[in-house]
Specification:
Blueprint: H1 3-28, E1 69-75, H2 105-113, E2 118-124, H3 131-140, H4 163-169, E3 174-179, H5 181-185, E4 192-196, H6 206-221, E5 226-231, H7 233-240, H8 246-265, E6 270-275, E7 295-301, E8 317-319, H9 323-330, H10 356-384, H11 390-412, H12 418-442, H13 448-473, H14 483-520, H15 528-532, H16 549-566, H17 594-621, H18 630-654, H19 664-691, E9 697-701, H20 721-739, E10 752-757, H21 762-780, H22 787-806, H23 820-836, H24 862-873, H25 875-879, H26 885-892, E11 899-900, H27 908-913, E12 918-919, H28 931-962, H29 969-1019, E13 1023-1027, E14 1055-1058
Parallel strand pairs: 1-5, 1-6, 2-8, 3-4, 3-5, 10-13, 13-14
Antiparallel strand pairs: 2-7, 6-7, 9-10, 11-12
Length: 1062
């Protein structure tokens, strides 16, 4: 089986999985239809006369304008409780002391002294709570769908009708200052604009200070009709420090001063609106639908009386999109065509009119206009799309027709019954709220045919992986047992959708206990037959384990301890409020105490040094640090430099805010250059490794004994297997005599002897080196204290590999296989590491700070930031792509104990006479004894790993399909499917790259042998080759049977001498 065929087949299987994911996604995450219709003053929203107050007045449209100017202050992530006062201490309860409470003091004072001029609402936000989707909702009055969340950092111009477009079309001068996202949404719409970069969440002041520089001069100039400001400091402070940090109190106090300055400059015809686009979680993130994320503050203020009554004790809860029709009618604009929000009725009351009937009629007029516009939209939308519920649509249309008829009848007698007007208002509100509820439920459009096709393709590909993985090493396998592991995996993977953070460690611990039981208690606590029967598709090793039970027990205890320690670094999902997240996930910069910060920094640097030392000791243990090859030199000197760069970056990042002002520019520059230097070193090391992957130390010495002639019944090199079976035993006996001193040594007349060291671990050394080089850039993308998790990750992987290798016998010449429990444990460990590094499969838990590591301020490399965030999120998937170690490690561990020497074929009589001799293990060179079995084992390993991953993505797809109408579909199941799909893509690509690296090393080893033969042929003399792997010197070498992988050397007449120690 050719190597390229293995990679091509794995790539084809991966493509089948990708096609299934894409097909399912196209049916599951569909967007709603966006209409391009626009409202206008010339086209009333429905039949009947316009409200009596709008007739003949200048500047009026559907309704007479109440205000001629608007100041809209958008404070990003202004959560509702940020606007609440500091609660007084109640006896018997602990005092409330939160940094964000009571900081908007001027706002609270206005609410108290001017209750008819100001009002505070709790704005209920529709998920997803990402900025771009909230800006669309605040200007169009529509409901952005879930799939729009993916374009949060690649915004496109809004095509739907919106408030900004209505303002510009009526000639209003709109001035904007703040977040540059508005420029993407409304290109060329502003008469004057001051845009500031918004992507760097570490920057708390650039945008806010830029707005304040232009805000008051612009207001005083009077050259504006609508002034929009978008402050970002509160949101960025939440992302960087969280809402409970003292820095949040400073930002809120700054916003309070801004509100005070605006109120003092307002004129009587100007309305002030202060609102947040969304809230934030207790960790400062947003994007989901938790209560804290969907709760924002909305504050209205007018220099003239706006509200007929005092505010209620508890602020009213209103949908966020209700602001759109309210502002449109207050400013005398048409309501945007696609709006489904409901006007805030109380702001349309006639405050100066003592007649309550006039206020009620004004509210009814505004609600009727709003209902007419929504009814027109429903009619147009239902004609273009068929995703609205037909029965509910008819019911709502009948409700609107009745309310509209009642309103038109009462309009003929405006001084009529007050009770009838209240009934009309109630009916109109029921219609508007019913439409919104129907749209929320209906706009999750699903294509069941595509979803079923995608799930079927995923299931078929999983079955293909299972089928071919068994066929690759066992042509006569039985078909029926294939269904058992598939059903087991699918059933177990369903648990991952909801409780993966707890299920992955539990399943991993269960597998570890099973392995320890197999190796330690077989025949003691458990019957031997129970542990040797193949279960659930697991392959039973054909041979005794190579380690005693105590050794396996120690490995298992160490593994369990590592898993428990890694579990201390966890982030709680939002659906488990009783859980408390680990405090060690935050960066050191967020810590207040200097001494504690220094202690933690020392611990992080210590973990980094331990990781470096462990890798170097491992490479030294197997002799892979003695070669003069460029990759080895890089490991000696490049890795320490990468460690120093990482430690220096941590020091700068943790103390950047405390740096003196004159050094901040230097610190900022170094904080950008150090990660780039570490990434550059890692890339250089990987390129050197790919260029020269064989880290072999070759020594040539003259004066070796001249070999005696090997008698063969043929002329020339061996041409058949029969010839090899004849000549190899003679070479074997000759090597025995050579190393035991049975031949007299000659001096200068002897041929050249070549000793090659470190070939016994050539594959695993390349893989471990590559993973270490990848770990450093990935570590920089995480918080400093995650370095402890990375150290545990490497230690945990080492223990698991040794535990798995302890129960896998070495079979020569093959076939080689990796049991199912090993592959499953490796996949579970990757999942456990994902959660141990502080991740959750939800958008609010994404580590956005990774987008700015090594990136200068003010950059516009969106693709680079997305790549950095993706590398941070799926770091565990990248590192655990080194699953070829599962195949290599048992051969590597062969060096831990002597083996009985294999007797050459045809020498049974001599074997009975001679005493048993110990054989130095060939280690990974044994894989080259049977290249076909080696390639088949790589193919089987890749297919098994893809099967385990595919079962997980299939379970997520089925869960999302079955529960597509569940309340938590967009909170749990859809994000989990998206994260699982992305993780599968990263893992499958990493798997192919890992196997390609092993094949690259294998090809380099073959090339190295060929070059050695050619060089010796040019020398024109017979020579010897001593192969060594790790541990001792060449003079301690013992003879071995010549591996078939090197039989090409026989053609040159070269004698080879193998040894596994160096």
């Amino acid at each position: 089986m050719r190597k390229i065929s293995v990679l091509l087949f794995l790539a084809w299987v991966g493509f089948l999985f990708y096609a299934g994911i894409a097909l399912f996604t196209s049916g599951f995450l569909l967007t709603r239809l966006e209409l391009t219709n626009h409202s206008s003053c010339q086209e009333p929203p429905g039949p009947g006369s316009l409200p009596w107050g709008s007739r003949g007045e200048p500047g009026s449209c559907w309704m007479a304008s109440r205000f001629s100017r608007l100041v809209l202050v958008l404070i990003d992530a202004l959560r509702f409780d940020f606007a609440q006062p500091q609660l007084s201490h109640v006896s018997g309860e602990p005092p409330v002391s939160l940094p964000f409470l009571g900081k908007l003091a001027f706002l609270q004072r206005i609410l108290e002294i001017q209750p008819h001029h100001a009002r505070l609402y709790q704005s209920k936000v529709d998920p997803p709570t990402t900025t771009m989707q909230r800006l669309k909702a605040l200007t169009t009055g529509s409901l952005p769908t879930f799939i729009d969340a993916g374009s949060n950092f690649a915004s496109y111009a809004i095509a739907e009708d919106n408030l900004v477009k209505q303002l510009t079309s009526t000639g209003r001068r709109v001035v904007f200052m703040g977040d540059e996202t508005w420029n993407d949404l409304f290109p060329g719409a502003f008469s004057q604009a001051f845009f500031f970069p918004s992507f760097d969440v570490r920057d708390l002041h650039t945008v806010d200070n830029g707005i304040l520089e232009h805000l008051y001069p612009t207001m005083d100039s009077g050259e504006w009709d609508v002034l929009i400001t978008h402050f970002l400091g509160v949101d960025h402070c939440g992302h960087k420090h969280g809402p409970h940090h003292p820095e949040m109190a400073k930002k809120l106090s700054q916003m309070d001063q801004v509100i005070q300055g605006l109120v003092e400059r307002l004129e009587n015809d100007t309305l002030l609106v202060v609102t947040g686009d969304h809230g934030m979680t207790t960790s400062g993130n947003h994007g989901g639908d938790s209560e804290l994320e969907t709760s924002a503050a909305l504050f209205l203020y007018s220099p003239t009386a706006l509200f007929p009554s005092a505010p209620p004790e508890e602020p009213e809860v209103i949908p966020q999109i209700s602001l759109v029709p309210t502002l449109a009618l207050l400013l005398g604009l048409p309501i945007p065509f696609g709006n489904i929000g409901e006007v805030i009725a109380e702001v349309f009351s006639e405050v100066e009119d003592s007649q309550p009937h006039s206020s009620t009629l004004a509210q009814a007029s505004a609600l009727h206009l709003n209902a007419q516009q929504v009814s027109r939209f429903l009619h147009t939308y239902s004609t273009a799309a068929q995703d609205l519920q037909v029965k509910e649509l008819h019911r709502l249309q009948n409700l609107f027709s009745k309310a509209s008829a009642d309103y038109q009848r009462l309009l003929q007698s405006p001084h009529g019954a007050e009770a009838a007007l209240q009934t009309v208002i109630t009916e109109l509100q029921q219609f508007l709220r019913g439409v919104r509820a129907m749209c929320i439920e209906s706009w999750a459009r699903f294509s069941l045919v595509r979803m079923a096709g995608g799930a079927a393709l995923l299931a078929a590909t999983c079955f293909l992986c299972l089928l071919v993985s068994q066929w690759a090493t066992s042509p006569g396998f039985c078909f029926r047992p294939l269904l058992i592991p598939m059903a087991w995996g699918l059933t177990g993977a369903v648990v991952f959708v909801i409780a993966e953070a707890r299920a992955a460690p539990f399943l991993l611990i269960s597998l570890i206990l099973l392995l320890v039981a197999q190796l330690h208690w077989e025949g003691k606590l458990l019957p031997p037959k129970l542990l040797t029967i193949p279960r659930l598709g697991f392959l039973t090793p054909a041979g005794p384990p190579r380690h005693n039970g105590t050794h396996a027990l120690g490995l298992g205890v160490g593994l369990l301890l590592c898993i428990r320690l890694a579990g201390l670094f966890h982030r709680c999902p939002e659906e488990t409020p009783a859980c408390s997240s680990s405090p060690w996930l935050s960066p050191l910069a967020s810590m207040v105490g200097g001494r504690a910060k220094n202690v933690w920094y020392g611990a992080c640097v210590g973990a980094l040094a331990a990781l470096l030392a462990a890798v170097r000791l491992w490479l030294r243990r197997y002799g892979n640090l003695k070669s003069p090859e460029p990759p080895v030199l890089f490991v000696r000197w490049g890795l320490p430099l990468m460690g120093l760069g990482t430690a220096a970056y941590w020091a700068l990042a943790s103390g950047a805010d405390e740096a003196p002002p004159r050094l901040r520019a230097l610190v900022a520059g170094a904080s950008v250059m150090l990660p780039r230097a570490v990434a550059g070193l890692a890339a250089s090391g990987l390129m050197l490794l790919l260029w020269r992957p064989v880290t072999v130390l070759v020594k040539a010495a003259a004066g070796a004994p001249r070999t005696r002639t090997v008698l063969t019944p043929f002329s020339g090199p061996p041409t058949s297997q029969a010839d090899l079976e004849y000549v190899v035993p003679q070479i074997y006996r000759h090597m025995q005599e050579e190393f035991r001193g049975r031949l007299e040594r000659t001096k200068s007349q002897g041929p050249l002897t070549v000793a090659a060291y470190q070939l016994g671990s050539v594959y695993s050394a390349a893989m471990v080196t590559a993973l270490t080089l990848l770990a450093f850039p990935l570590l920089l993308l995480h918080a400093e204290r995650i370095s402890l998790v990375f150290l545990l990750l490497f230690l945990q992987s080492f223990l698991l590999l040794h535990l798995l290798a302890a129960g896998i016998p070495i079979t020569t010449p093959g076939p080689f296989t990796v049991p199912w429990q090993a592959v499953s444990a490796w996949a579970f460990m990757a999942t456990q590491t994902f959660y141990s590094t502080g991740h959750q499969p939800v958008f609010p838990a994404i580590h956005w700070h990774a987008a700015f590591v090594g990136v200068p301020e003010g950059h516009d490399f969106t693709w680079l930031s997305a790549l950095l965030v993706g590398a941070n999120t799926f770091a565990s998937h990248i590192l655990f792509a080194g699953c070829p170690l599962l195949l290599l490690w048992p051969f590597l561990c062969e060096s831990q104990g002597p083996r009985k020497r294999r007797q050459p074929p045809g020498n049974e009589a001599e074997a009975r006479v001679r005493p048993e001799e110990e054989e130095e293990p060939l280690m990974e060179m044994r894989l080259r004894d049977a290249p076909h079995h080696f390639n088949a084992a790589l193919l089987q390993l890749g297919l098994k790993y893809l099967f385990v991953l595919g079962i997980q993505i299939l379970a997520c797809a089925l869960a999302a399909s079955i529960l597509r109408r569940h309340l938590m579909v967009w909170k749990v199941f859809a994000p989990k499917f998206i994260f699982e799909a992305m993780g599968f893509i990263v893992s499958s690509v990493g798997l192919c790259l890992g196997i390609a690296l092993v094949m690259r090393v294998d090809g380099a080893v073959s090339s190295w042998f060929r070059q050695l033969v050619l060089a010796q042929q040019k020398a024109g003399e017979q020579s010897s080759l001593v192969y060594t792997g790790a541990g001792s010197s060449a003079r301690e070498a013992q003879s071995h049977l010549l591996p078939p992988c090197s039989q090409d050397l026989l053609a040159s007449g070269t004698s080879l001498f193998y040894n596994s120690k160096s």
